Amino acid sequence: MAIEGDFLRTAAEKLAENLERIETCVPKLPADSLWARASENENAVGNLLLHLDGNVRQWILSGIAGAPDTRDRPSEFGARSGVTAEAMLTSLRGTVGEAVEVIRSLPHRRLTETVRIQGYDATVLSAIFHVVEHFSGHTYQIILLTKRATGEDLGFYRDLADTGRRASDSGEAMRIGAGPGTKDGRSTKDQAPRTKSVAVIEHRSTTPPADVRASGTPARR
Fold first, then answer.
1. Which residue among 25, 118, 185, 196 is least crowded, i.e. fewest CB within 10 A of its CB?
2. How many angstroms separate the CA atoms of 66 and 5, rounded?
3. Are 201 and 11 in contact, with CB atoms under 8 Å apart?
4. H helices of the chain, where?
5. Residue 212: Cβ within 10 Å count
6. How far apart are CA 114 and CA 88, in angstroms?
7. Closest CA to 156 of 18, 52, 26, 15
């Protein structure tokens, strides 16, 4: 497989995997944890769900696929209640699903194309890379907040616990993210039931943006 195809496949798979992990976490949260925050300098899980939806839609569906850009980024961080977890997951699932299809079907020649997103020029390749790393960062914030709220082992790497290596019936090396009896690199028994899933991109700020106050200062949001 050409490196371009491998990049696009891996990007789409990672977005889908991260979405599945979010879908595992959010239903486990106690009702009062969705919008809980330790201080005004932190974001609740609800804000992160709204933010990921906005980011993917702006960067992938609008910036790369050409859909209208209607994003209201400040509202993603200003929300304090009102939207249910189910509604936010449904919206995020749809957005990510559209984004994954855009990424999977993208002509390789477009990877070096320059697009204007959020007032910045970027190649399509760098935009996709940004969306994946951004989505991953906030996914792990949600995982941490879920563990703190529930005290539960979420089981994402349970099959590595004993030996540090995933078990293989055949003994042959398997590609990360796939294999017999597994899905997205983890045991199927550890996965939450899911409806149709999948992904998106986004951002940048000259001052520390609200979405990374507890996790660093990446360039775009």
1. 196
2. 21
3. no
4. 3-25, 45-56, 73-78, 85-104, 124-150
5. 18
6. 31
7. 18
* Rg, C-alpha atoms of the chain: 18
Distance CA 141, CA 42 (A): 11
With 0-12 CB in 10 A as exposed, 13-18 as middle and 19+ as buried, what is 100?
Answer: buried
| Contact criterion met (CB below 8 Å) for 220 and 121 | no
Whole-Å CA distances, 65 to 52, 74, 166, 192: 17, 23, 37, 30
pTM given for the model: 0.76
Confidence of residue 30 (pLDDT cuts 50, 70, 90): very high
pLDDT at 89 over 50: yes
pLDDT of residue 159: 83
